[in-house]
Structures are given as structure tokens and as C-alpha cells.
Amino acid sequence: MHEASLVKSLLKQVVQLIREHQAVEAIRIHVRYGPLSGIEPDLFESAFTRMRANYDCVNCLLVLEWCPLIAVCEACLQTFESAELRFDCPHCGSFQIEFTAGEAIILESVELQFNETGTVSA
Amino acid sequence: MSEMYRVITVRRDVQSDVKRQAAEFRELMTRRHTLVVNLISSPGAGKTSLLSTTLQHWKQRFRMAVLVGDIATERDAERLAEHAPAVQLTTGGACHLEHALVWKGWQALGEPELDFLFIENVGNLVCPSSHDLGEHGRVVLLSVTEGDDKPAKYPKAFYTSQAVLISKCDLLPHVPFEMERAIHDVHSIRPSMPIFPVSVHPVAGMEAWCDWLLQQRAQLIHSCTTANAC
Questions:
Q1: Cβ-based contacts under 8 A for chains A and B
Q2: Nearest to B5 among A87, A95, A111 (CB)
Q3: Are strands B4-13 and B35-41 parallel, antiparallel or unpaired?
């Protein structure tokens, strides 16, 4: 159920992109997630398969890619990988960090299909 | 007719629209000087009891209301309605509250002028961590009966919160809960996180918890006034 809510948000964005680019449909979407994203990939994929037809994405494939938890320290400005879910900077010890990858679920890209003229058929 | 394919780079948070709506709600509540607090915990940690005791502690002194999230029943809202306006948000199976439901609950309250709006989330220490409800402060409740290892096991719940309440402290003599270990693990995630040991049978620790709420609201009003935003 948790994953279903996130998949719904994802599919709404994909539908918006199809309309903005006047495409026929989305055929592949690339999503990146990480250790703090709070999703179970199998459940996310099954929710996507179950829900995509409701958003005119019946042929759309989901490419789900895991990425490590990366943070930047606001004190010393160094970037580091938080391999063990650490919340302090290994360089200077500060807790003033911001996660730049592996926390949010990111829609990286969408592969869209167009007709010959590049627009939706009338 | 031949087909064309094109890859569009997006690089956008899947939850960006929902987060924007939650942020707009938070700004609205800031302008109205209403501190919104989202209380999260495992099932049975004592959220409803803690809120009931808080409402009674402050009764007649502040304008308060509660939005209560549960998968089923309206029992918690009925219990809290004895002390303040309360609306039940029944998720019908969802394991967490989302901002859209909080917005409906706010409208069901009648969009009143409030000093504090408390949101009691669905009992779940995982999923609520990933959903911004539009709150100013997220508070995680950890009961001594759950074990002192929960901060380490559920880091996102504690990382995304601004305070910790350790509940049912009256039971400490009877459970193997090491307070120092729990505090250490919380501060390994957020070193300045305020931690408030509380109990409701008997009532204890409410002054420090309520003082923190008052400070948060005072800071909210100050920031709003300073920014000339209200």
C-alpha cells in the first residue's frame, strides 16, 4: 500500500510529461532509489505493473535502479557516501549534512514514443 | 506511420507535487500562527494517551484541534473529542497519512483559528517517515516497552523528526529498556534532538514537553513576523 501511493505520484508525473511533450505514450521510465527512499523494490514494481493501465501507460516498462546514499557536508563541503546510514560527516564530524542521492525517489528519465510528425495523431 | 522515440531527462523527485502542496499548507498555517505537529510511532506506543493528556494539560488555555489517522474505527477521535475538536482520518488500508487527507480533515474541522493542530499519524514507524503532511514539527514517540534499539533500527523515523518522546516511563522498573542507550542512539542520528521522557499513568514529564511546544510556536510566530509574512 505504501508503494502504491508513491507509484501513483510517479504515474501522474509521467502522464503530465506525455501531455507536455505531446507524445503518444511512455514506453520506458527510469527511476532511481536508495537506502532512505523507504521502498521495497519488488513491491514498487508489482504496484507499477498493477497500476500503469489506469494511467494510459499499459506498455510502459519500469527500470528501477538502486543508488548509494550520498551526502554533502555543509560544514566542510566534502561529499561522502553514507554506507552504514551514518548521519555525520566522516571528514569533520559535523551533523550538518544534506543527502544528495539515495533518499528521495527520483524520476530520472522517460522514453517517449511519438508518431511520424512527432506529435499526437488527431 | 513510422514511430519516433526520444528520452527525456527529468531528474525530479517523484513526490515533488505532494511535497509542494504540503509546503503550501505549512506556509498557510505559519501565517495563521498555528503550529502543526505530526506525531508518529509504532502501534500502541501511546500517541492517543499522550495527546489526550496534552490537551487536558492545556485545556482552556490554547485553541487546539486534532486530526487522527487510523486504518479503521473512529475510537481515537471520539476519545480525543472529549477535550478538543477532533476529526478522524480513516485511511481504509493505507499504512500512513498523506497531505491530501490532512487537508480534507482541516476542512472538516471548519478551518478554525488555532494555536496548535496535532496530527496523530497511523501507528507505523516506517512509512510515515516518507510523507510530509505539511507539519512544522514531527515528533516520534518511542515507548519503553518497545525496546531501546528502535532508533538504530528505524533511523529515518528519527532522522526526519524534531523531537522524541519516550513514553510509558512509569514502566521502566519492569522492562529492560536502557534510557542512556536509547538517548545515545538518537543523538547518533541527531545530536541536538530534544528527548522528553513522559508517562500518563501517572502523569509525568508534561511540563518539559509542553514547554518545547510553546517554544516551537514562539519561534514560528517570530520567524513569520521577522519575514513580514503575516
A1: 105
A2: A111
A3: unpaired
Nearest CA in chain B to A4: B94
Statement: residue A119 has pLDDT above 60:
no
Question: What's the mean pLDDT in B36-43?
Answer: 96
* Partners of A25 in the β-ladder: A113
What ipTM did this prediction achieve? Answer: 0.89
Q: Indicate the helix (H) or strand (E) that contains B186.
A: helix B179-189
**What pLDDT shows up at residue B72?**
66
DSSP for A33-98, please give it.
Answer: E-TTS---HHHHHHHHHHHGGGGT-TT-EEEEEE---EEEETTT--EEE-TT---S-TTT----EE
Tell me whether residues A9 and B15 touch, CB distance under 8 A: yes
Q: Is B166 left (phi over 0), alpha (psi -120 to 50) or beta?
A: beta
Strand order in the sheet with A25-33: A61-66, A25-33, A106-114, B4-13
Instruction: Tell me which chain A residue has its CA closest to the CA of residue B92.
Output: A1
B167 within 8 A of B142, measured Cβ to Cβ: yes
Cell for A71? 551526502
Check CB contact under 8 Å for A1 and B93. yes
